[in-house]
Structures are given as C-alpha cells and as structure tokens.
Design a protein that fits this description.
The complex is a heterodimer of chains A (347) and B (98).
Chain A: H1 3-21, H2 26-44, H3 50-81, H4 92-106, H5 114-121, H6 124-132, H7 136-145, H8 151-168, H9 175-192, H10 198-222, H11 227-230, H12 233-236, H13 238-252, H14 260-272, H15 277-302, H16 309-312, H17 326-334
Chain B: H1 3-20, H2 26-50, H3 59-85
Helix pairs in contact in B: 1-2, 2-3
The chains are: A mainly alpha (347), B mainly alpha (98).
Amino acid sequence: MNPLALSLILTTLLAGTLITMMSSHWLTAWMGLEMNMLTMIPILMKTTNPRSTEAATKYFMTQAMASMMLMMALTINLMYSGQWSITKMTNPVASNMALMALMTKLGSAPFHFWVPEVTQGVELTPGMILLTWQKLAPLSLLYQMATYTNTSLIYLSGLLSILIGGWGGLNQTQLRKILAYSSISHMGWMLIILPFNPTLTLLNLAIYITLTLSIFMILANTFTTSMSSLTLMWNKTPAMTIMLMATLLSLGGLPPLSGFMPKWLMIHELTKNNSIIMPLTMAIMTLLNMYFYMRLIYYSSLTILPSTNNMKMTWQFTNTKHTMTLPTLIILSNMLLPLTPMISMLE
Amino acid sequence: MPYIYMNIMLAFVISLIGTLMYRSHLMSSLLCLEGMMLSLFTLNALLSLNMNFTLSTTVPLILLVFAACEAAVGLALLIMISNTYGLDYVQNLNLLQC
C-alpha cells in the first residue's frame, strides 16, 4: 500500500481505540468505535481478492449494526437519565442492549458468527490486528459499564463462547479459523470474570494479546496458513517450530507457562465466590481448545509426516523477513508465571 | 413515555429487523442500516428539543456525519462485490464457509 495512506490508516486505527479508551462521555466512545470500524475496512482489503471483499463486507455489516444498536441504547439511556456518563447507565433496557452490542463487536457467542469467516478471508497481519487490537476498545467500555447489566446475560454469553470456541475449532484445518475460535473461547473467559473481578479481565486480555501476537508473528514469518504447510516448518525454521509449540501450550493454559496465570487466578476468584459448577464447566470445555492446539503441536514438532525425500533436503535459506518484537513476545508469553504476585500492581 | 418516542423506537426496531432479515439483495440491508440511522437522528433531535438539552443539540449532526461515512463505505463494498459477481445477492458470499 502507498506509505502515506498506510500511515494515515494506522494512525486513525490508533486514534480510534485511544479515543474510546480515554473517554468518559458515551458519544466520544461511540465515535472512537466508528472510527475503528471505518479504518479497519481498508486494512482488511489490502489484497483485493474476492475472499477479502467478502470478509470486509461481513465485518462491516455486523459492526455497523452493532454500532447502531449501541447508539439506540445510549439514546434510551439519555431519555431516562439525561446524562451521557459511561459508568452510570442505570436503565436496564439500555445497559443490556449496549451489552449485546459490545458483545457483537467483540465476537462472543451468540454473536460470534462473523469471527471465523472474517479472520479466514484476510491475510495473517490484518487478521492479527482484528483479533488483538480490535478487542481493546469494546472491552474498555464493558469494563466500565458492566456493573449495571444483567449478570445472567454475561454468564450465558461467556459459557456459550467457551463451548462454541472449543467445539467449533475441532474440525478446522485452516490456522486462521483455529485462531478465531481460540479468540472466541478466550473472550468467554474474559466475560465471565467481569462481574467478579474486572482486573482479571484486563490481565487475561493482556496475556491473550501477547500470546496471539506471538503465534501470528511466527505464522507470518514462515508464511503458513494451513495445517499442511505447518508440517513442513521443521525443515525451514526448527527454532520457530519449538517456539510455536511452547506458545500454543501456553495459549491452552498449561502450568509452568504464563497462559496458566489468568486461568488459575480466575478459577481461584470464582471458587472464592462459592461458584463451583461454572469454573468446572469452563475448565473442562477449555480442554477442547487444548485438543486442537495439541494437534497443531503434534503435526508441527512432534512427528514428521510422510513426505518425499526432496522435502527433507530443502536448501537452507537465511531468513530475511524482519522478526519485529518476536523474541521479546515469546519470552513474555512463556515465562511470566513466576511474576504472578505482581498483579497486585494492577489493582 | 410519550407516544412520539415509542413511535420512533418502533421505526428503529423495524429497520433493525429489516437489516437482519433480507431476502437476496445486500442493498436492502444497507438501506435498512440507513433507516436505523434516520430513526436515531430523529429520536435524538426530538430529545434535545423536548427536554431542553441545549448542549446536546449538535449530537444529531454528529450522528449524521458518521452515518454518511458508513453509508459511503458500505456502498464501496457493495460495488466491489458487484465487480466480482455482477449482482449483490448475498447467497454469492459463500467462499468462506467451513
């Protein structure tokens, strides 16, 4: 893309999210969300093939409809309380409608249908921006307004997200769809802990963004988008294969890696509040996620699938693709568990 | 609640249903999106005038600006779809299914 246009688009993306995150008036928050959506469309359509066009159209339709529903909720709130403050949305109709609109923007069940298709239709880098940066603005709004919503709706959506994220990803061979269902599942975890301890939502978001960025950058570095190309990664960049294994295990929430930290703290928080069945269901459903991560690890690093001898003796080219912050992100996504007591800093 | 507000909220709900339940053309969905925006504009303008929210009288105009941008982007996407398929039928958008 033209560098001037690209810098303008990325600046608008940054500005939109920052405007939403730093606002206390609902109208500026809504304007930031609109700016995010409008500037995401050219990012999704960087390559102009029919799949990108279809992905951009589906993204536009769902997000525009969610924005309109959010604006209606704000207008109803204005009608009943006369103010535009984000933290005081006391009318139940308005706050639940805004909750549903924000859940659509995040891609959590039952409004999750656009996430796999849109992530699949675009390249790896726009997909990365879609699944990480676009979660910041709606979650910052949810963090502030969730106290007045019906918590049953939040629990329902969260549990459904974990179920659908787990079961939906089982039959996939395309890596972008697998990461989309993983995103749906993690959104479920983030939503459920929101009424109990919102700080853990932010912690989960931070660690999820680190992990997802690592995985997307590893995949973008080796140009792999499906499981069949993943099986040939061992010959080109064996170090990245091992890093992918460690990061995927961390995403599934295995103990000595940092992905275990948010899940452990969230289950601890839920059991402190005398809720046993819900964390049990959540933990068991996340095992479905773990199954398809294990399948990816199995195919990329633990076994070598049958291939011709030509594949086993490829010419070892040096890697000329710039790995931006990948070493730092991989260390952060695997070795943060001993720093768990430092989350008291976040309170 | 005064009858006029309920009337415009009903217009919003009908446009929302029109966005979600359309037969074949994507254009009708975009039109209902604009219908939602129009009902929101009217509701906001009436609220600012009836309840004397003098500082919020610019809110309908700001909504209109963003809705115009959205409409432009939506139409541009519609044109790109028409470039590929010749029509804007939504059953053509089936490349990305599982």
